[in-house]
Design a protein that fits this description.
The structure holds 2 protein chains of 2 kinds. In chain A, about 10% of the residues lie in helices and about 50% in strands. Chain A has 17 helices and 61 strands. Chain A is elongated and about 145 Å long. In chain A, helix 4 packs antiparallel against helix 5. By secondary structure, chain B is mainly alpha-helical. In chain B, helix 8 packs parallel to helix 11, helix 9 packs antiparallel against helix 11 and helix 12 runs parallel beside helix 13. Helices cover about 50% and strands about 5% of the residues of chain B.
């Protein structure tokens, strides 16, 4: 660590010396002061005749003014002084009597003074100019006041005709700017008369550009109707070195205009907001339960040991983004990602990889999701009230369970008579029953879920102060519901006591969120912004194991109602309490100070604190049968604090008139502290719900702390506002590095060339870009250290504390290092009606951290080593089309898609592969988390009995590659149709993912010898292909999952929305400035050939770094129907 | 003036950061105990306790315990679970592709923990030496268990100064010989404790029996009194009796009765050495679960070695040497110590005498991890067919028993370049 610190110190010195030594350019402020005094002095002008246009005279080149004279004017009137100077200068100076304060006394005594200086002295502050004319000699005229006018206008969404707040209005070539208020209006007073180009910019919309003429004392109006487009080059995006225009960056950054999406689309959490909206970004759902958390993957998988999860940065502060296992069953995880309220978000930027994320440093290699929360704008207070209500439906058709009944051919006893036993002559089948309690109306553990949401937001401000406040309550009850017969049974067992609601509806979410953001301008060159967000939530996730119990049931209605067993019926399973209560506090303070026109500095500090309380309870004599019926209790408290500090400065210079240099330096510090304490008790006293009094109580604690500290320098050059070059380097030290490793350095290069800019006609703009960068992923915080695990042992009947080796450690551990280059083009065609963004990327993960499985002979599972190498390359594209755009109708269509090629190039000497599960392996030369199995070479029903037997299925001897787990292909189609001048809007979205394979573990287990409840082992009508899959899986000599490892491709009709803008008459009666009602649906249909449960879920329980699961029985995504009303007050 | 203030501020910032920099990446890790912290007598004792704890956890463990797993593949326990758990595959003798370690990894871990504890005790706390003797004996037992459970060709790795030293494949015979060597070391150190000395002697006798060196085995145990026992101790949470847990709490296993045609009638015999009690239906709602009541709680101790085992070793040596009468006398002497057991009569044939001897061993040492090794010995040393001693034929749910008699290591073992897979999967 010492070496890392020394290196870091060197960098810090360099950065700060650069800051200090850059202290040039203050002469410019002197010039500015001179300009201000000049305003009070007379100007020397030339005009062909009085009243004609004037031009300034060069005094030194005008002999009449440069002539030296002697004057002695001690207390003379101004009229006398003019007369004296006129006489000494040799030319007549005329003036109108009412224009000159002739009686004003002046003093001037000089032996040798120029005429110009003498006139300047005596006329100073008189508000006069000296005008030389061709025809009328020299005249004194009153200073003409600057002629100004006012610019006003309204900016609307071209499709919806809805006012657009927050649009940046700029007079090109000047520093005059304004921002539209909540009614979409802007007003710019005191604009000097003249002709200008006025532009309107807003993220998510095309650039608006108009010519406008400002006339004296007049109001000129310019209205804009902006087209919705995914991105534009003129948008401003957030980078480590400050806000930058997209056109200046050589890499692509995905942007989601959250504000407009949440208003119309069925967005219930951050997952919905991100899913399928940015090319190359995949959201992988664990399950469809309310409150579960997803995993995000950007541009493929880079690591098979450490997390592939991107960083989450909110208002400049790093925010916890981890997931936690909760409840029983597959894939049940809550997490901090969905703590953020989408309604509070203004925009989301997805920084996709090292080429873009270099300056975010170690940890940023998997990309960065940059969230910017809403801000207030100067103007009157705008209040928005919204309310949403809706239902959730379980729409999955679960597979039937089968049981084949028969008699033993030898004994005549009744027995299950599987196909293979029939073929062997063991039994004779006489009937097959089917039953799955998940599908039966009486036993089905589902009901209609409910969702309600209400929120209010207010924003506004004055010139120097802006604010945004927001409050929201959200409640959702998932679809799981204890069936009536179980309610009756359980109630009877408990002596008629009413069953608690938390057991009847075991999946629910209640969340309140509050946010207050404020900004203050300090003087003319500094501002401070404060953002505070608090989310408090309770999530119940329990009983998803009931899906397992249902699809693994015996195939007939047993006394246990056809569930897998008595102890996994809804009445028992739902009696477990698994609740997570979370308080999540995200705060940041940021400041910008511009001490000189060429220098800007910035600072952000923040704290992200999340406190999670996991509350597990099985009351005595309730819940699943077994040992835990004595009552168990788990308290698990996890506090995570993330401290962020960011200090930076940028200096801009015009190296030449057409070349602008921007040098940025900065320091970043991130510290993460996780503290976990747990207490559990077994053997609860009757009626007890706490650890207190439990027969056996255990406790534990854990502290994990990690720090990354880094510094960077970036140089950006702009040539004629067309060519942008950027070079940067960042260096990091981190606690997780091994003692033999020092500083990690990450370089970056970027080029952006705007070859065509805002031209009318066919080709409106064309930009070519390329970027190269490196970044890293740090090892687990203690992976470098050998550690002992402490615990008590019973020796000779006495409990004594002892120690055992837990990890071997690795002193050479260093960060996983990723380098990436990308290039692409952005094209706008046909008057901006067609926009295309295309990108190719190629990323190599060197020194990939491999959780190297140690041979079992060492007793320790694994240790992290930098021995792997993973490559991801692929294409991303975004195409948006405005198919119709007229007063009545607008139709926009957009496609975003990506193709990813993933390959494990090196895995480390001596490691043939890293196994994940029976089918999934990481093997050199193949994509990460690929599926392999012994192939089924063929099958034939040679004896013609309609049943395949072992000998009739040929299985290969060598494992074959079947496919990869993460979908390499992704395509999303979104359509937005606006009718009746935008009063009605219809939007929809389809999402395709393909190229991946899933192992249908649901099918495998159902067809195993142990469960044997699937069709292909019971039904003679099952196809031979299906029978072959089951035979091969159950083979005693060559068991293979081949027949169940199949394509997981799917297309989901993900969203449909219908929005109606209420008419003005109704608005008046509602005392509302605007109002809309929206009906939306989510997860409307699934198109897939996959025969397991939903192919979109990934059910690796608690394994945030492991992919390749899926196919286990877990809750599929549910369908939402939501009704929403938005009111502007 | 403006320039000066800016520079002064920057200098202040530089100084502040430099002062702080040396601590920028320092963190506290109160949970972490690194090996250098146990380089003393107290640390050596902590490692000894940890090693004994680890041994007891794997010996008396639940799903992947030595007793439960070996008893499942043999005829002691029958699967009552529905979950697709490793014990289910062991019970049906259809071991899946080796993705599950069973007790293998934990036995290896226990072995290495014990070796680290031995080294620490030798360096920092050599007295009393009997504590080292106990550790050597437990280390030897891990080798013996590996030999009884696993296929032939298992390596024994080491971790030296953080470096991985891969082991060479050892045949089953080599493993037992290695066990004998470690028992001998134990005997060397155990002179000041009869308890640990006898543990080593019984263990050595067991390993020699596995090697087919019957006379040497009998000689090794000859001085062990019949009343001797060495038990592993258990307690809830930290070191639970996993056999009790998996039967009584989880209801995943039951004491078997005539399992798979060849199985012994452990329950229906009504033998006082294998007392059982009905505890309800298994998880599968199909199999009746019976517990082994000698393990009446999570705290019940488990016998690892005993004087009874010593006598049984001597009996087998006599039978092997042709002294069937002597062998029967020992069996009946033992039976006389247990109320409710009638004396045995001499069977007519040698095979029947062998059956009777192994039945006595099975009942005396039920649920102590001996039966799987004995079945393999019946195949290896008495030339029985595996299908004549292991459970076989129809299984529940219409399935059929497989043919496996030993466990393969899991796939991670392939990471050892010396390892070539099982050299033999037979008995």
């Amino acid at each position: 660590m010492g070496h890392a610190t020394r290196s870091l110190r060197t960098i810090v010195i360099a950065v700060l010396v650069a800051h200090v030594s850059a202290g040039i350019g203050f002469a410019q402020s002197e010039t500015e002061r001179a300009e201000s005094t000049e305003y009070r002095a007379p100007r020397f002008l030339f005009a062909t005749k009085p009243g004609a246009a004037t031009r300034a005279l060069d005094i030194e080149k005008t002999p009449a003014l440069a002539r030296r004279i002697a004057v002695d004017l001690d207390g003379a009137t101004l009229a006398e002084a003019i007369e004296t100077i006129s006489a000494r200068a040799g030319f007549r100076i005329g003036y109108a009597a009412d224009a000159v304060p002739a009686e004003r006394r002046v003093r001037l005594r000089a032996e040798s003074i120029t005429v110009a200086a003498a006139l300047t002295d005596v006329l100073g502050g008189a508000g006069l100019d000296v005008v030389f004319t061709s025809s009328a000699g020299v005249v004194l005229v009153k200073r003409i006041q600057p002629q100004t006018g006012t610019l006003t206008g309204t900016v609307l969404d071209s499709a919806s005709h809805r006012p657009l707040p927050g649009v940046q209005i700029r007079l090109e070539g000047t520093s005059i700017r304004a921002v539209t208020d909540d009614s979409g209006q802007f007003r710019i007073p005191a604009v000097p008369v003249g002709r200008y180009t006025l532009t309107a910019r807003r993220i998510g919309y095309s650039l608006g550009r108009q010519s406008v003429t400002v006339t004296n004392a007049q109001e000129s109006r310019s209205d804009f109707a902006l087209l919705v487009v995914p991105t534009t080059l003129e948008d401003v995006v957030t980078t480590v070195t400050g806000a930058q225009r997209r056109v200046e960056l050589g890499n692509v950054i995905g942007t989601i205009n959250a504000d407009s999406v949440t208003r119309d689309a069925p967005i219930t959490n951050l997952t919905n907001l991100i899913n399928a909206r940015v090319p190359g970004t995949q959201v992988i759902l664990d399950n469809g339960l309310t409150g579960s958390s997803p995993r995000i993957r950007i541009r493929g998988l880079n690591s098979f040991t450490v997390s592939n999860q991107p960083l989450l940065v909110v208002d400049g502060v790093r925010v916890e983004n981890s997931t936690a296992t909760l409840g029983n069953g597959y894939g049940q995880r809550t997490g901090r990602f969905n703590d953020l309220n989408p309604e509070e978000i203004e925009s989301i930027e997805v920084v996709k990889g090292p080429s873009a994320a270099t300056l975010y440093g170690t940890d940023a290699a998997n990309g960065v999701i940059v969230v910017k929360t809403k801000r207030g704008r100067p103007g009157h207070t705008a209040t928005t009230v919204y309310a949403e209500t809706g239902i959730l439906q379980e729409v999955e058709k679960f597979p039937d369970n089968y049981y084949s009944w028969g008699t033993n051919t030898g004994t005549g006893a009744v027995q299950q008579c599987l196909l293979t036993q029939q073929a062997a002559g063991v039994c004779t089948q006489d009937s097959v029953t089917t039953f799955n309690p998940l599908n039966n109306s009486e036993t089905r553990p589902f009901g209609t879920g409910r969702r309600n949401q209400v929120g209010v937001q207010a924003s506004g401000g004055v010139d120097r102060f802006t604010y945004f406040v927001s409050g929201e309550y959200e409640g959702e009850v998932g679809v799981l519901r204890m069936p009536g017969i179980d309610q009756a049974r359980i109630s009877t067992e408990r002596g008629g006591v009413a069953i608690p609601e938390e057991q009847i509806r075991p999946n629910a979410l209640a969340r309140a969120s509050f946010r207050a953001n404020g900004g203050v301008a300090v003087g003319s060159n500094a501002d401070i912004n404060v953002a505070v967000g608090l989310v408090s939530s309770d999530v119940r996730i329990v009983g998803d194991g009931i899906i397992t119990s249902g699809v693994f049931g015996p195939g007939y209605r047993t006394p246990a109602d056809g569930w897998l067993s008595f102890l996994s019926r809804p009445g028992e399973a739902f009696a477990l309490r698994n609740t997570e209560s979370v308080d999540h506090y995200i705060s940041s303070v940021s400041g910008n100070w511009r001490p000189a026109s060429w220098l800007s500095t910035r600072m952000t500090t923040g704290l992200d604190f999340s406190s999670s309380f996991l509350d597990g309870l099985q009351r005595r004599d309730e819940g699943p049968l077994g040992a835990n019926r004595v009552g168990t209790r788990l308290n698990l408290k996890t506090n995570v604090s993330q401290y962020s500090a960011d200090l930076g400065a940028s200096a801009s210079f015009n190296l030449r008139p057409s070349v602008v240099s921007r040098t940025s330096t900065g320091l970043q510090y991130n510290r993460r502290l996780q503290q976990v304490t747990s207490a559990s008790g077994t053997g609860l006293p009757p009626g007890s719900e706490t650890v207190t009094g439990a027969a056996v109580v255990t406790g534990s604690e854990q502290t994990v702390e990690s720090v990354v500290a880094g510094a960077y320098v970036e140089e950006a050059l702009s040539l004629r506002e067309r060519l942008f070059l950027t070079a940067a380097v960042r260096a990091d030290g981190a606690t997780a590095f091994g003692k033999n490793f020092s500083t990690a350095a990450y370089p970056k290069l970027s080029l952006s060339w705007l070859t065509v800019d805002q031209q009318p006609g066919f080709l409106n703009s064309l930009r070519l870009r390329a970027a190269y960068g490196a970044s890293g992923v740090q090892p687990a915080s203690t992976a470098a250290l050998p550690t002992l695990i402490l615990g008590a042992g019973i020796v000779d009947g006495v409990s004594i504390s002892g120690a055992r080796l837990q990890t071997t450690g690795n002193p050479d551990l260093r960060p996983e290092r990723q380098t990436e280059y990308e290039n692409g083009a952005d094209i706008e065609l046909f008057d901006h009606r067609v926009r295309l963004e295309a990108t190719y990327y190629n990323r190599l993960s060197h020194d990939a951290l491999v959780d190297r499985p140690l041979p079992s002979e060492f007793g320790i599972l694994s240790r992290q080593e930098n021995i792997g190498s993973v490559r991801n390359k692929g294409y991303e594209g975004l195409l948006s089309l405005t198919l119709l755009n007229n007063n009545q109708m607008t139709w926009d269509l957009s496609f975003n898609g990506s193709v990813n090629h993933n390959k494990l190039e090196k895995i480390g000497a001596g490691i043939p592969f890293v196994g994940v599960n029976p089918t999934t392996r990481n093997v050199e030369g193949y994509p990460l988390f690929s599926a392999f199995a012994l192939p089924i070479l063929g099958y034939a029903d040679r004896d013609g009995n309609g049943i395949l037997e072992d000998s009739e299925v040929q299985i290969g001897d060598t494992l074959v590659f079947i496919g990869q787990s993460l979908p390499p292909r992704q395509l999303t189609m979104s359509s937005s149709l606006s009718l009746l001048q935008g009063r009605v809007r219809i939007g929809t979205q389809f999402d395709y993912r393909g190229g991946q394979v899933l192992t249908n573990y649901t099918g495998i287990n159902r067809c195993s010898a142990i469960l044997a409840d699937c069709a292909e082992v019971n039904l003679r009508t099952a196809s031979l292909a299906d029978q072959a899959a089951a035979i091969a899986y159950n083979s005693r000599t060559k068991k293979t999952y081949y027949g169940y490892t199949v394509s997981g491709a799917f297309t989901r009709w993900r969203e449909l929305s219908l929005t109606y803008q209420l008419p003005e008459g109704l608005l008046r009666s509602l005392k509302s400035t605007r109002a809309s009602i929206t009906l939306t649906g989510r997860n409307l249909h699934l198109f897939t050939k996959y025969r397991g449960l939903d192919p979109e879920t990934n059910d690796a329980v608690g394994l945030s770094t492991v992919e390749g699961y899926g196919g286990n029985p877990t809750s599929p995504p549910v369908r939402y129907w939501l009704f929403r009303i938005n009111l502007g007050l | 003036m403006h320039n000066l203030s800016l520079r002064a501020a920057a200098r202040f910032l530089v100084c502040s950061i430099l002062v702080c920099c040396s601590r920028l990446t320092d963190v506290d890790a109160p949970d972490l105990v690194t090996p250098d912290r146990v380089g003393n007598a107290a640390g050596a004792e902590a490692l000894r306790v940890g090693a004994i704890n680890g041994f007891a956890l794997v010996f008396g463990g639940a799903e992947n315990g030595q007793i439960t797993t070996s008893g499942a593949i043999a005829d002691e326990f029958y699967n009552a679970s529905t979950a697709v758990i490793s014990l289910a595959y062991a019970d049906i003798r259809q071991l899946p592709e080796p993705s599950t370690s069973y007790p293998y990894r934990n036995l290896q871990r226990a072995r290495l923990d014990i070796e680290r504890a031995i080294a620490a005790k030798q360096e920092f706390a050599p007295n009393p030496s009997s504590k080292i003797a106990e550790l050597f004996a437990l280390s030897a037992y891990t080798r013996d268990f590996l030999g009884e459970n696993m296929c032939s060709g298992i390596p024994l790795g080491e971790i030296v100064d953080g470096n991985l030293v891969f082991g060479e494949p050892l045949t089953t015979t080599q493993l037992f010989e290695d066990a004998v060597a470690n028992f001998d070391s134990s005997i060397t150190y155990g002179t000041d404790s009869a308890r640990f000395l006898n543990l080593a002697k019984v263990g050595k006798g067991r390993a020699l029996l596995n090697l087919g060196r019957f006379a040497e085995a009998a000689a090794a145990v000859s001085t062990v009194p019949t009343s001797y026992t060495y038990m592993t101790f258990h307690a809830p949470i930290v070191q639970p009796n996993g056999v009790f847990a998996i039967i009584n709490n989880s209801k995943w296993l039951t004491v078997a009765d005539r399992e798979g045609i060849n199985g012994l009638n452990f329950r229906s015999a009504g033998d006082p050495r294998v007392p059982t009690a009905y505890v309800g239906k298994g998880v599968d709602q199909l199999v009746d679960v019976y517990s082994f009541t000698r393990y009446g709680s999570l705290s019940a101790p488990i016998v690892l070695a005993s004087g009874i085992e010593a006598r049984l070793i001597e009996a087998e040596a006599l039978l092997k040497a042709g002294d069937a009468a002597g062998e029967l006398a020992i069996l009946n002497d033992l039976r006389a110590t247990m109320p409710g057991l009638a004396p045995l009569t001499q069977p007519a044939t040698l095979d029947q005498q062998i059956d009777q001897l192994f039945r006595e061993r099975a009942f005396w040492m039920f649920a102590t991890g001996h039966r799987h090794g004995d079945l393999r010995r019946l195949v290896r040393q008495y030339l029985r067919s595996p299908e004549a001693v292991f459970p076989t034929g129809p299984y529940k749910n219409g399935s059929t028993y497989g043919t496996d008699v030993s466990f393969p290591p899991d796939n991670t073992q392939l990471g050892n370049p010396n390892y070539k897979g099982c050299l033999s999967t037979g008995a």
